[in-house]
Amino acid sequence: MFCAVLVLVLVYRKGGVLVENYDDKDELRDLEMAKKRNHKVMITDEAIRKVPRIQYKNIPESEYSIIRELAKNVLQISKDENNSNEVAITYSMESKKYIQRGEEYIGVALGGEHEVDPMSSTIAYHLVASAKECIIIVLHNHPSLSDFSLSDVKFLLQYASVKMMVVITNLGSISYLVKGKGYMYETAVELFNEAVSMNNEAKNLKDLQRAANYFLRNCCRAGVDYDNR
User: Fold this and answer.
1) How many independent structural domains does the chain possess?
2) Does the CA dihedral 216-217-218-220 come out positive or negative?
3) How far is the CA of 36 from the CAs of 51, 145, 228, in angstroms?
4) d(CA 33, CA 17)
5) Which of 169, 140, 211, 207 is nearest to 20 (CA)?
6) pLDDT in tens, 173-196
7) Residue 103: which domain range?
8) pLDDT tens digits, residue range 110-158?
9) 3-class DSSP state for residue 55?
């Protein structure tokens, strides 16, 4: 979108309800240990250093390095200021326009261990409301180190100005959802509602993850690209 903001969201709208590859052996070990623990993974300087530069689909190449630095900043802020809890950065790709006006073009929101509301930042709220395209980068520190939740998907679909949502885990791996040129809102909402139905019938954590994965596997049908690194 483009304004950039990293974040997820569920939503009601007309027509429907929006209701890792690791090469390092130590990282693999840490990942398996994290999945067995019932608490978050603390962020390390090594995780921040390893944040990859990604060639995002449907995003100008000039934004790749900027998004990488923002993703690293999300981890750094969480580590230094928020006890490795969740953080969201909202970024407008129309930064030059905001700079010329003397306005902020990056909003930061601090959350708790399991959630963060990007819109709790007044700057982020202004960007999402006024920008044409935004990118939201969100730090998730779920014990499973999972990427997108249905709440994340809802946020993406709810706001037309949010072009892309990026999720980074406490180990520095990245996943993203981005709306392409062929984005179809109604189809995306239908897929979302189907995933919500699966979520409501879930009996365990595995079923909940399967519901979220249903949207991720099928979102291409709605012109939404998903990738994880």
Assistant:
1) 1
2) positive
3) 24, 11, 22
4) 37
5) 169
6) 899 999 999 999 999 999 999 999
7) 4-228
8) 998 888 899 999 999 999 988 878 888 876 655 444 578 888 999 999 9
9) coil
